[in-house]
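tool_call predict_complex ligand=dinuclear copper ion
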Amino acid sequence: MEIPYTISTRPDTGLWNAKIGIWLFLASEVMLFGALFSAYIFLRIDAAPGTWPHGLLNVPVGTGNTAILIVSSVTVVLAWAALKMRRYRVYWWYMLATISCGVIFLTVKLAYEWPQKFEHFGAYIKPDALGKYEKYLGNERRAEKGMEPRIEITGHLHSQNAKEYEVALDPVNADPDNPVMDRPHFLPLPVTDKIATIEKEDVERATMFLPTHSAYFASYFTITGLHGLHVLGGVLVFIYMWLPVSKRLYQRNPEHLANRVEVSGLFWHFVDLIWIFVFPLFYLL
Amino acid sequence: MNNPPDVTQDPKEYEEYAHGVQKHVRGYLMVGALLLTFTAVTVALSYVDFGTRKANIGIAMLVATLKAGAVAAVFMHLAAEKRLIYRILIFTGFFVLGLFWLILLAWYDYPIFR
Amino acid sequence: MDASTSVETHQDPHAHAAEHEHHELGFWRKYIFSTDHKVIGIQYGITGLLFLLLGFSLMMLMRWQLAYPGQALPVIGKWLPHIFGAGTMPDGKMTPDFYNSLGAMHGTIMIFLGVVPLAFAAFGNFVVPLQIGAPDMTFPKVNMASYWALFVGGSIMLTSFFVPGGAAKSGWTSYVPLAAFSDAGPGHNPVFNGQTLWLIGFIFLITSSLLGAVNFITTIIQLRAKGLTWMRLPFFVWSQFVTAFLLLLAFPPLEAAIIMQLMDRVAHTSFFLPAGLVVNGAPVSISGGGSPLLWQHLFWFLGHPEVYVLILPAFGIVAEILANNSRKPLWGYKSLVFSVLVIGFLSFIVWAHHMWMTGMGTAVSAFFQTTTLLISIPSVIILSAFFISLWGGSIRFTVPMLFATAFLPMFGIGGLTGIPLAFNSADLYLHDTYYVIAHFHYIVAPGTIFGLFAGVYYWFPKATGRKMNDFWGKVHFWPTLICMNVIFLPMFLQGMAGMHRRWYDGGQGWNVSNEHTIWGLTGFQWNAPISWAAWIMGLAQIPFIINFFWSIKHGEKVNDNPWEATTLEWTAPSPPPHGNFVHTPVAYRGPYEYSLPGRERDYTMQNEPVEPAERTRRKPPAELVPA
Amino acid sequence: MNSLALINEFLGQPPNASSHGYQIDHILEFCHWFMGALFVGWSAFFIFVLIRFRKRRHPQADHLGVRSGISSHLEFSVVLIEAVLLLGFAIPLWAKRVNQFPPGKEALVVHVVAQQFSFNYHLPGPDGQFGRRDVGFVSNSNPLGLDPNDPAGKDDIVTTGELHVPVNRPVIAELSSKDVIHDFFLPSMRIAGDAIPGSLIPIWFTPIKTGTDEIICGQLCGLGHYGMKGTLVVDTPQDFQAWLKERTELAGGAQGAAPSPSPGAPQQPQNKPPAPAASPSPSGE
Ligand code: HEA
Ligand code: HEA
Ligand code: CUA
Ligand SMILES: [Cu+2]
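tool_result ok
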């Protein structure tokens, strides 16, 4: 028994099965990420002043990763087009390129970006101790300009004892009154060698840049993590379609392979599309 | 062209079809380049202060939407798809927006304050 | 009719490959890891029935505590601690935590592991491809994956009973922050605790439903037999189609919420936790900034469509059986289809009627009240159409028909009592009382469950080639019907008296209800008769279970179309072979051509070609057309 | 009591004791009459059909069945009745509940702070001003975290268990919670509202009869949920003043900001459930 319309199209819908299937699946993905983004927006508009961090991510790296995903989207359509033109070798190379892009993206994310966050340290200062750390926070100037106060001091944790943290400050806290720091994209700038001593008594909560740090990092790790899982899934599927088994399918029925590539390509583009929103939302704003 | 003719094993017809595919390839490359440019634009714009953070967010989201639109329309062939797919997507779009918009409404429509 | 059978094969050069792929499969491939929709349907069915039984058993335990709070459970009370752990029923007396676990798991199991697998996945898998004349689902392997995802999810849920601290105990709604604090903190395993396992299990259940939904929709769109146009689909297929869409689009937001709650528990984020919480007198150290209401919105965004997932398949089953046993077409087929589509659409925008008490303003509550009332209209239309369908019929009271007819007033009571809940000012008084419990149980228990029983009795001959015993079917039906009403009617009274749900002591410690009597009993005293009815109903299921298993081997053998029905599944052999049909069917007419005037038989199957003479005769005579 | 109201009584609803409660009861009555009419009508039809058209009585079914359009009239009247109930009663009633709060001077304002498993009440005392509350100050003797340095809080009344309100005067209760979601339900006042941590939800009602009633927690809040009850005492104005005075004296006499109004430890949740062997702490931690 064979299921109809796996390869050819059904006349009244003009579509083959998997095409409908993948679009339905993507529809559910739209709902999934739609809900996550909605949650992100609600948490953000609800955030108490000073608790929503800005500019903590590494923009150049993020930009690079965005470019890599876009390139991979191009290579995957080209791979599909090559199949349509029945050029298996070309297909094979484009597929390899796509897979490599996916792997690079994941590597950058998991081996570089995330660990970099884990090493970073932030201490929220208690409201009544803010004045004491004015020289790191620059709140007087910010108040004048009508900006949200800063309530957190960040950097690398140099050392700590029972009473104090010693923090090698980030540029924002090292030079808080510098107007450039009002819209900081500072992680590419290295941590300064200026060391601040913060008394534990004055600290409301101190944490590394982990999901526990704030609603912002919670969303960041959740959404990029889930997105990363999608990338991983896509890469695995592509690897399967690139291995020698695909050659056999190609020889049996090239259109079948082309359909499979189209379907997984649609998924891949969707993953790219999600990233197109993740990138500005988390990195730039 | 996204939905190829039913596979006929007639090589001549296929040749024609492959030629059609070839023409699209340039389009894909151009869209790819466009997307890369737009990425650079988004980053650049984020350094510009448009007055309020809301304005910055709005502009960045606008660019992102354009990019997403290009991916969907060209790479995902949505520019020329069958009606059925559009229908599915329209309902989905409606429901995500409903989800977002109704929660937003409920969020702010509280007696006195929350 | 053979000439026109090859719907698609002529355009598929590889169709000839079909024959030589048809080799014998081993036991594992044939019955366990099968990709045949019928086997998968049966797997789903058995799983669903077992979980229903489990969910019911949990409830029978709870009913003891409600009727006789604090008293030791006789006989089995001594054993239960050995099964569920020492802390659950010391000396046979239920602890509040265990009561809450049972309640949460009763809700979860009944809905997500009982009714959804049975009503949607089992009947959908077994019946839909047959009814649309398809050889199988479009994606058989995905179909198998979706069953196994359910299996894993269900196993995780079951496992959670046996971890220290017991299963999830924050209600099937798992409202945060309660759910975030339960089973958490020192002394609890970060993963192997009730609530976390509930969340992880849920992710598998959602995956299962999503895969199933994609498969069903694609199958219904793509694999309809030639001639089976949308308006010739049996109503059951329509209801499954809409149900699949509900699952497809409503589940992902809950999945998002579940991922976030999982992060809250495992990675200690605070998506749903605001700052400044004090638990047990100690401030909680979290970043804060989250919102408990966000969870409720995302939960009910699924939660409401989900309740229609529970009822629509039952509507479909009941429709088939009503038409068949009254020997006449469904009345108002088009308006039925239209109503079910409208329900599907509206069910996405009514969810906040579960949240009236969360401090909602006028505009939003007016919106949601309006949509909630609007959605009751198509339900009224559907139910009216069912009632009217019976008029002029020749009603046979077979066992499936008994359950299907009982479904109607039972759903009616449940649906009607939804109306006061829909008005937020009335719900102000009724919210979270037993009135709500009675409202939805009337829909899901004597409603959906009856629909499911009806479906089991109705399609059993198709799956096995044998019929279930009629006499024992009736012995199952009557006590069940009576007990259901004895269980759930008094709950309306308790609810009106203000008695609340999820009360471990059944309202014993609530002074007001103990001074105020309704029909001679106080709110609390009503618990005992209710519980007795529940236990008697438990006994009444024994004939069903025995009948079910006994009939598989020993039931009366019947032909391929024992009910003399019209839809395509009855043209296939019973049980249908791999690939379903001997001849690929073609549909020439609507699904319910019963008692066509001038025909020998009182049913005309969908694959019987229209005779030329019929064409003219089909138009009703002018004097019969309504003005 | 008009005769319509009989249906609610018949169904076991206890009497109302607030000024708006009869409106809520009216909606319930209308609903129940409406439901009753539909139920009786359809049931009669249903039973008739089942008897009249059973196979023995009517062996040959009629292909067409009902041909009149009566059902559309029926459906239309259902729509109409629902519309009337909604537009005429439910929406205006709700609007009054949430938009037209009585002016603060006229009303008695009480902050209700729920916790596992009791309700705490915070009244402003003679100065009419609520003292500041902050989690930082929460301690055994200060369950609500009243700021000891805030002069407005010196005379505040913090109590639990019994809430006294005067008859015929509007009461505004602002609901919040320290830990999980609870629901403050006053059955005889026909009013309820969720107490949600992180938000403040106001409800209001005017008692019209003196007497006592039970306060119920209407939202699952843990293992002691079933025992989370309180008492509402509606006093004559004189009695209420006396109660206030007594409480204020207690507040003034007590050490620190938080008075211990009731003998014994006020932070002990009342109606504490018997702690089961398996899980020693109320929140299930
Ligand atoms: C399958 C399940 C199902 C269905 C179909 C419905 C249908 C409806 N539900 Fe129900 N509901 C639940 C399951 C369901 N519900 C559950 C599980 C909960 C509780 C969740 C929880 O908190 O745990 C709930 C809770 C719930 C609430 C929240 C109550 C609260 O928590 O305070 C509300 C409020 O608006 C509501 C309203 C409605 C309405 C208006 C309908 C309408 O769609 C009903 C329309 C139907 C009719 C109007 C019937 C028409 C019939 C006739 C006209 C014929 C009559 C004839 C005879 C009787 C012979 N429901
Ligand atoms: C589909 C959903 C569903 C179904 C069918 C039921 C069925 C029943 N429910 Fe349940 N219930 C819920 C969903 C459901 N419930 C939910 C969501 C809650 C809220 C939970 C919460 O508070 O969080 C709830 C809560 C709830 C309560 C309130 C508890 C409390 O608040 O403290 C009570 C009290 O009596 C109750 C009773 C019953 C009873 C007596 C049945 C009976 O009708 C059961 C009937 C069952 C059967 C008749 C089983 C038949 C199956 C077989 C016989 C299998 C045969 C097997 C083989 C052949 C292999 N339920
Ligand atoms: Cu507090 Cu229930
Ligand atoms: Cu609902």
